[in-house]
Design brief:
The protein is α/β, with parallel strands linked by helices. It is built from seven helices and nine strands; from the N terminus they run βαβαβαβαβαββαβαβ.
């Protein structure tokens, strides 16, 4: 278990999939800030694997398996973390899932019920639990990754688009609560993610409109490293700069 020093910033990466991997490894490669990475995933082995990758890349990291749908469990995790590390500077939310439907029907309602805990509840619990530590940080950041599909609901993604839209509304409200602090609630939109392993395995596929996980990582590291952001900051990575 790694312990931080006073100069070290603490980043929670919620979700150890390809997005979380891109963010964590990019943060370690970023020389301007000394990040200690805390990887959280319901799959303990996946979280531990990413923490090990961060350590192998020269960073400090630890992992935990926490039920992010349970506010009491998240608060217990937060309290233990603050006792050991003393601070949390950034929470990066990459938890979710996807379920579609044929049309707006009973299956869409079932998909909504299935998606709600992972897509919406985990945003609620983690933002509530970490709001005060982030507000007290010199430059606290809560970052949610969403999909451009949320702004364009179709009959096949009714549940997913609705859940992502609800989560984004919650994050904007969180940003409103940050107005008298240096903290910012950030929403980063992508169409979908692709990592180097995907590209290597499918060399002829074009992945139109996809965001590389390295770019996602860099843009999020920029958000958490830049001071003076608006209380609510939104980026669409599918649009040309």
């Amino acid at each position: 278990m790694s312990h931080t020093h006073d100069h070290t910033h603490v980043m929670l990466v919620l979700g150890a999939g390809i997005g979380g991997r891109g963010v964590a490894l990019t943060a370690v490669a970023n020389q301007s800030t000394d990040w200690h990475i805390v990887v959280v995933d319901r799959d303990a082995d996946l979280a531990a694997g990413l923490a090990q990758a961060v350590q192998s890349a020269g960073g400090t990291a630890e992992s935990a398996s926490v039920d992010l749908t349970d506010l009491a469990a998240v608060e217990h995790f937060r309290d233990a973390l603050l006792v050991r590390l003393g601070r949390v500077d950034a929470v990066i939310h990459l938890v979710g899932g996807w379920r579609g439907s044929t049309t707006v029907d009973a299956d869409a309602i079932a998909a909504w019920a299935a998606l709600l805990p992972g897509v919406v509840t985990t945003v609620q619990t983690t933002s509530v639990a970490f709001r005060e530590p982030l507000a007290e940080a010199a430059s606290g950041r809560f970052v949610m990754v969403t999909s451009t599909a949320a702004a364009h609901p179709t009959q096949s993604n009714a549940a997913y688009a609705s859940a992502k839209s609800a989560a984004a509304a919650w994050v904007r409200a969180l940003g409103d609560s940050f107005r008298d602090t240096p903290a910012s609630a950030c929403i980063v939109a992508v169409k979908a993610l692709v990592d180097p392993a995907d590209r290597a395995a499918n060399p002829h596929r074009k992945y139109p409109g996809y965001t590389d996980t390295t770019e996602l990582g860099q843009r999020i590291v920029d958000l958490v490293s830049t001071r003076g952001l608006a209380p609510v900051t939104e980026l669409d990575l599918t649009k040309a700069l």
